[in-house]
Amino acid sequence: MADGAFTNGLAAGWATAGNGTGTQDFSAGQEPPAATDGEQHGVVSFQDFGGSPTSLSQVTIHTITAGQTYTLTVDVGQVHNFSGSEATIFLFGGTTGIGTPLSNTNGTAELAGIAPGSGAYLVDMTVSYTALASGDPFEGEQIGIGFLNSVGTQTLFDNVRLEDSALSVPMLNTLTSVTPADDSTNVTISTNLEATFNKAIALTGSGTINLKNLSGGADIPVTLPGDVTILGSVLTIDPGSNLAGGEEYASQPI
Fold first, then answer.
1. So where are the chain's domains?
2. Residue 155 · residue 79 · CB < 8 Å
3. Could you write out the DSSP letters of every residue in 108-177?
4. Which pTM was predicted?
5. pLDDT in tens, 148-172
6. Class (C level, CATH) for 5-164
């Protein structure tokens, strides 16, 4: 486009309501001093020619997931020769539709009243939504992003970013050390067995396991929980009887 030109129309994937949504390449006299990208090539520009608010929206391919936080960040501004601009940015559910911003007990994903003023840019305007851990009203819907301008003004939106938080994955229990060490020899027959894990553990079951005699002799039974104690991340097995001298043993998983 030439400097100062405005082209009606939408990029693929976007929807609009109202008039005058398109892209603009500002001339030097129009460009906001705080513009974030030089001459703002490809900036989304709303010009309300029809006397009603103009909106722009897109439903993304990303699905709202329990416990996830979604953050929309966008720069909002207007050119030198316009004033009175006021904008709203928001997130919505693709099935529920643009008319209902995402909302739950964590809050509503809508930021209204963004007023950059003539020839100004407000950068990194942000709105976020954290889905409930369970029972979120929008869980499973594709997340949508939306912009709205007020009546009779021009509003510019640029540098649109939608980010989500990393899902918290519970850390699995990992065995970090055992005493006596695997394949140890000359171990005292009354020695207890200790297993240390990467985080605190708990013993919730009951029953019996065996210290398997690999030399052909009798196995040593271990009663759960009687012969097993846990202190934080350390599990200790104290068999009801000592091991036999000169024999090789292996423990079953608990």
1. 5-164, 175-251
2. no
3. E-EEEEE---TT-EEEEEEEEEE--SS--TTTTSEEEEEEEE-TT-EEEEEEEEEEEPPP-PPPPP-EEE
4. 0.59
5. 876 556 777 778 889 988 655 555 6
6. mainly beta
